[in-house]
Amino acid sequence: MRGLRLPGGQELPVLGQGTWGMGERRAQRAAEVAALRHGLDLGLGLIDTAEMYGSGGAEEVVGAAIAGRRDEVFLVSKVYPHNAGRRDAVAACERSLRRLGTDHLDLYLLHWRGSTPLAETLDAFEQLRADGKVRHFGVSNFGPGDMSELFESELGRRSATNQVLYNLTRRGIELDLLPWCREQGLPVMAYSPIEQGRLLGEPALRRVAERHSVTPAQVAIAWVLAQDGVCAIPKAATVAHVEQNRAALDIELSAADLAELDAGFPAPPHPVPLEIL
């Protein structure tokens, strides 16, 4: 598995497993756990979740999947903005740890920006790091202005990543946020790399997929992985889907493929507000 180097030196796997939508239906729990465990078998050790997903249910699914295999996992969770206060963030993290059945997170993120001052959230994150409950911390859904403000403080500059929406149809970050993160040596974690399936019927994507004898979804993931400094966390709730996602890592898009995808999915001509799902 290729990796991206975090500012602190640890490597972040370039392809992982998302869990948005998991833990919402008990009838699907066994299949979701099996999918995540199979992903670990295939080397997909990066698992991303959040206290928001399934109101903690996704974290419980992840906890069941990683039981006995914690050392194989780079584990990420996220805190609600309304739980991002000094004491509240510590308590929220401890609840997440209990649901996940672990004593630490590899990465803890502020899910999106709320009304709590950044300094207060960062103080909580630093306390969690000092106590060994998180190894790294960072943010999610932060635009260029938010990131600039974050990096005004010493603690903010210790942030390890920014998790944002990025795929062939959501390329606005290429004009400002992505170059800024690259300059700072800050990896970007791309969620929804296939736009929840909505981009899969686009002609350019289908043509490239046909040339490689793969699915449009695999090409969409491979395109994200071809971007410098970016990792992807597609969700897969079945074993078969996990295998398809893993195979995307082996697709080598040619210059002609990339040019065709650029033409079919052009980046916006000017900066746009950060998009969020």
From TrEMBL:
Source organism per UniProt: Saccharopolyspora elongata
Alphabetized InterPro entries for the sequence: AKR, NAD(P)_OxRdtase_dom_sf, NADP_OxRdtase_dom
Positions marked as site (Lowers pKa of active site Tyr): K78
SUPFAM superfamilies reported in the protein's UniProt record: NAD(P)-linked oxidoreductase
Protein name, UniProt field: Aldo/keto reductase
GO molecular function, one term: oxidoreductase activity
Domain NADP-dependent oxidoreductase intervals: 15-263
Record-linked Gene3D superfamilies: NADP-dependent oxidoreductase domain
Pfam families, alphabetized: Aldo_ket_red
Active site (UniProt): Y53
